[in-house]
Each structure stands twice: as C-alpha cells, then as structure tokens.
Task: inverse folding
C-alpha cells in the first residue's frame, strides 16, 4: 500500500542530546577494526588539529538512525519496519563528530516513493552540537520491500 | 584537519592503496554491540533464512565503514572526509566459519574539485560481487 505523500517535508522535534564519549568512539573503532590513533589518543587527534578524539566517519549513523527510528515507527506514516532494508546512506560533514559533543538530531522526511511494490522513504537527519553549530547531515534511504517479494 | 596528501600531488585516476577487510561472525557481533544495530539478520542464521537470505549478512554500515578506511588511511586525517555516500547493492554474506567473508576495496581519484577537495570513487566487492554502488567520498587534501 502506498504511503501518504502528505508526510513529505514533515520534520520531527530534535532528539535529546547524545553525549559522545571517548570510550564509545574507541569501542566503535575497535568494532570496525580500525587502529587509527585519532580515534583513541587525544594527543594524536590534537596533532591533526582536533580538540579531542574524533569518531570514524560512519559513527554518526549510530545516532541518526535512532533518530530516524522515530519516523520509521510513526504509526501515522505506517511503514512496515519488519520489511525495511537500508538502501542508500550519505553524509556531509561540517566537522567530524568528537568526544565531548552533545549532539541533537532533527529528522525530516525528504521523499516518499512507491516503486514495484516497495515503499521508499528518504530521511534527512541534521546533527547539531550543543552550541547549535552544524556537525553532519545524514541522508538515509529506507526501503520497505513489497510483501510479494521473497528476495533480499 | 590536516590531510597528509597534497592536492597538487594527485590527478584524476590516481589510485589509492587497495585493501582487503576480513569479516567473521565475531566481527558482526562486535559491530552490533558497538553500533546498537541488533537486527537478527546479522547474527541469526535461522532468522536470516526465514526472511529470504541465504545466510547471515554483514551490516551495510559495517561495509560502508570498512570501505572508507581506504580513504582515511590515505588522507592521514579521517576528519578530512567532507562527504561520503554509498548505495547498498548486494549483501555481504558471512558464513559461520573461521574464514568468514572478505570485503575488497579499491579506490581512485575521480575528480579534482575546488578548495583542495577531490572526489574519490570506491569499489567494494565480496565473493566477486559488487556490494556497494555509487560509493563516493569527497576529501579535503593539504
């Protein structure tokens, strides 16, 4: 069933601040197997011009995806989350996420399409720090596969 | 932001050092914990098969995170990445053995932009199949 086009352009209230910790960044860097010192050692990060350890580029998704969950689970939108797969992901960075950041995400539905029985929703997450400065924008394309399709 | 590669030292077609990233079931469990994405298609074979997959698959975001390491390792400063986007075209199937899967990544400079920025196009394959499409990063060089 096609989703309601009137949701295009809808923004959701900013999330509560997410506090980025050094150990969380280290945990994430370990999980992707990346030994980059700037993810672990404040001095190494400072040598590159950063005030504290920075997070790997895709770390932002762990925050924006939770925020997008508000959209995905909006009962009025009616997306079937059990059929949702991740289609595309893009980031545009003003600066890297870093330890000590308190980040809020504002999610907006940019587009809704129905193609070949699939519902496709584009969500833009704008991430700002405590001072209101822009950090990163994340664009997430979610595809709810049509019930008739059995393939992944 | 201090990339160690100078803008004037690259040209369209410059190849970045290719990399191969192994991924096992243990990798996926660790990534699930660190990222908070506990979707069972990334760790539960029975569930993965019930939804039509041949086996457990890697998180798309894990593949995306691995691929960009070719760019961040080359640039020297991960903070030099100003844009990064991918399309998830095929899943990375991760067998339940010691070998797991391999994500093979190549990259080359595709365009010289203003402000010392270059666009790098990435190719990521696993088991001979392209797993990321339209995989591009914009990075600011020295």
Result:
């Amino acid at each position: 069933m096609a989703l309601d086009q009137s949701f295009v352009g809808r923004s959701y209230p900013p999330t509560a601040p997410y506090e980025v910790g050094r150990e969380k960044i280290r945990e994430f860097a370990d999980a992707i197997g990346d030994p980059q010192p700037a993810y672990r050692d404040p001095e190494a990060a400072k040598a590159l011009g950063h005030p504290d350890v920075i997070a790997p580029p895709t770390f932002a998704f762990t925050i924006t995806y939770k925020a997008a969950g508000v959209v995905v689970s909006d009962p009025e939108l009616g997306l079937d989350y059990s059929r949702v797969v991740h289609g595309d992901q893009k980031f545009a960075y003003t600066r890297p996420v870093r330890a000590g950041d308190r980040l809020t995400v504002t999610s907006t539905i940019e587009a809704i399409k129905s193609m070949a029985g699939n519902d496709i929703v584009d969500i833009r997450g704008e991430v700002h720090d405590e001072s209101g400065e822009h950090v990163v924008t994340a664009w997430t394309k979610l595809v709810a596969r049509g019930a008739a399709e059995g393939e992944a | 932001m201090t990339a160690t590669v100078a803008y004037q030292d690259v040209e369209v077609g410059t190849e970045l050092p290719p990399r191969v990233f192994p991924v096992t079931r243990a990798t996926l469990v660790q990534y699930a914990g660190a990222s908070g994405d506990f979707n069972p298609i990334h760790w539960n074979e029975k569930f993965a098969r019930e939804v039509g997959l041949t086996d457990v698959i890697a998180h798309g975001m894990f593949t995306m995170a691995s691929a960009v390491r070719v760019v961040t390792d080359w640039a020297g400063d991960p903070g030099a990445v100003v844009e990064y986007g991918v399309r998830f075209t095929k899943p990375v199937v991760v067998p339940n053995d010691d070998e797991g899967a391999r994500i093979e990544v190549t990259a080359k400079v595709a365009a010289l932009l203003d402000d010392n920025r270059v666009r790098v196009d990435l190719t990521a394959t696993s088991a001979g199949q392209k797993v990321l499409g339209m995989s591009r990063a914009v990075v600011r060089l020295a």
